[in-house]
Amino acid sequence: MLFAFIAAALAARIAFWIITDRKFEDGLTTITHARNVPLGVGLVHHVGEGNVHGFTSALGVLIPLAGELIHEGSGMLAMRLASLVAVAVAMAYARLICRELGLSGFPTAFVLAYLAFDQNMVFYGMSGMETQVAVAVILAGVYHVRRQDLIASGLCLGLAPLARPEFVLWVAPALAYLALRNRRLTIAAAAIAGAVVAPWVIFTTAYYGSPIPNTIVAKSTVSPIPAFLANGSPMPWLEWLGQQVLGHIELLLYHFEPFHEVWSTAAAPVPGPVLIVIAVVVADLLAVGLAASRRTTGWWPVLLFLGLFFAYRVYFIPAINYYDWYLPPFLALVMIVVAVGMQRIAAVRPAIASTLAVALAFAFAVHMPFSFAVESRVQVVENQVRTNVATYLKATVAPGESVTSESAGYVGFYSGVKLYDYPGLTSKTSVHALQAVPPDQRDLPHLVAALQPDWLVLRPWELKSLREQFPGVAARYQVVRVFQMPGVPDSQLDVDGATTISFAGLSETDVDEKFIVLRRIS
Fold first, then answer.
1. What residues does each domain of the chain span?
2. Which of 107, 188, 239, 417 has the fewest C-beta atoms lying within 10 Å of its C-beta?
3. Average per-residue pLDDT in the chain?
């Protein structure tokens, strides 16, 4: 069964690759750093601002870097190949974890099917993100830590924060678990993990000035945590916290709904009530699984990590339907707990449990013919609009001139210009400019007004907002080119969220079908 699901997972990803050739914006942002190393620029996104740590995941840049050093232009290929390997590794460890938890065939099959076919599992790894590698790292860590394997535990715990910085939330309970079992083992495993992490911490400190990615600083700048006391009262902070909790619970339920787990989904080919029922069933099974797994030996570090991760999202991540790539490692463990819930039901009603396993596995796989077609059309838009924008900038912008845009991925990768991106993922200049204004004014128009770069690359509503908030600044810029999808009326292209890409009932909002290039008037 394991080999069959691994083969199916690889087939699904290769089909997605061939059909779509999808390149995700944030993946290109990271791969740009790797691409620039063999070009002699350094491990940076662009020249002109020094060494800026403009990516979040160490493995997310090291894997493409290995590809670029072998053959120039192979960063995306390296990440895709690594994702193919990683899904096989992740599913093997998931099978081992399910066996140790005593799960029978149908609950185990559900877990393997989810890892093989879930929409975000397929999409992000095959479009340039480190997501699939992070799933493999977290599942391998869970297995080896529970077994108290010294070397393997140390290696996995060292790789965890290199895969995703927030995985320190897994490292802490894992080391606590090992410490309760064997103190000497814990010290040795921690030493191995430290030896894995230390070279990267030393390098980033020496090269960038800090091991903390600039992306984290930028995101926290535009989405700051409110002060605990406002005018002597904690009520505004408590109101914000309540909204965050409810918002992230709602987002988690969205990720239990096939199709709706993707932030840009505008319509699904499956009726909404059916998707809601699926989410409710998964949530109920999760609740049963949480109650049942509390008594499982050595499982509490996983439950603690799930709680810490959710708390981290509540406190640090805005409750908006985005950042989907953060969740697959977390959801891989959640679905194992869901399978524990199935197993608990199987002890009483085996037919119901097997039916749920088959139905939910199918539910999370049914997206493929729809999403593959839609993502292929999305990539056509990227090729005809943002890629062409970047190519124009590369040919037109003089060395040293600055460009401001929200699109750090395509614009940066294909143009190589000095980019003051919003919100400053790759630019300390942008971060400092936004930090200089009040939190409620840290938007793109205020960034443009503060920096007044040589060039602007804006969506229509971004330009409209600039003209409304800063008409004097906007008057200093002249439109020189407009790049847009042919055949789509401006009445749709000029309105945020009005354009969608559809296939057989699945529609995704696409906000990248029109960009306006402006140049500052001398």
1. 2-375, 385-520
2. 239
3. 97
